[in-house]
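Quick question, first post here. What does this chain look like in 3D?
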Amino acid sequence: MKLSGWGRFPQVETEVHAPRDEAALRALVTGDRPVIARGNGRSYGDSAVGAGLTLDMRHFNHMLEFDAETGRLVAEAGVLLGDVIDAFLPRGWFPLVTPGTKLITLGGAIAADVHGKNHHVEGSFGACVDWVEIMGPDGEVRRATRKDEDDLFWWTIGGMGLTGVILRAAIRLRPVKTAWIRQTIHPAPDLATAMDLFEAHGHDTYSVAWIDCMGQGRHLGRSLVMLGNMRRGPNWTRRRPPTRWTRATRASCPCRWIFQASP
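> Answer (accepted):
Ran it through. C-alpha cells below.
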C-alpha cells in the first residue's frame, strides 16, 4: 500500500503489518527485510515509512501502571498522548511536555524527542522519560534507563526508531489543579520585539508566536506572542475563547484555555 507522513509527501509503496503481540512483532523484526516502526503517522516526511516493511504499532496501546504519588506512568508505545490526557487530566495530572498535537503515540514522541510550547522550561519529551524497553534486530528486549544501558537510552531518545522498536516506556506526568490555561497575547511589531518578549517572559510555562511571514522592512517578523500558564487558584476568571472553535480545533487542543489580551 502507499503510505506517507502527516505532510502527505512522499508517498511510498510499502508493506504494512500490525502485530498484536511480541511474538508476532519478533518474527517481523528478525526477518530478512529491514523494518521501521510507525505510530499514528503524524511525523512529517517519510521518517515512519519503511522502504519495504512498516510496522504499525497501534495495537500496543495499553496503559500498564500508574504511581499516583509520583505521577509515573508505564504504558505501551502505541498509547496516544490524547489517551493519557483523557485518563489522567481529570485526576489532576498532565503530560510534562505537550507538543502541538495530542494525536501522537508515546513511542513516536520518544523516537522523535518532540518538543512543545514549554520547551524553554521543561525541555523536549526525553526529559520526562525514565526508561524505555526496546526490541532490537535480534528480537531481544532490553530495558534502557538513564543509568543502565544509558547509551542505548540516549540513542533511542530522538533516534527516530533506528535503535529498535520501542515497546514500553515509563514517563512522568506533572500535577495540575485544573484543566484551564490562561493565555495572554502580546502584539509584536517586529522580530526584535518578539524576541524581547520571549526573554522577558521566560518564566511563563508555555510560549509561542505566530509570525506574519509577509512582513517586510520595519515590519519584518511582526507577530503575536502568546503566553500561557496553568490556572492555579479560584481567582482566575473563566472566559469563553473569543474565536469560533471548530470540531477539528477542539480535537487538537489538549487543554482548555482562558484568553486575555495584553494592554
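The radius of gyration is 20 Å.
The chain is about 20% helix and 30% strand.
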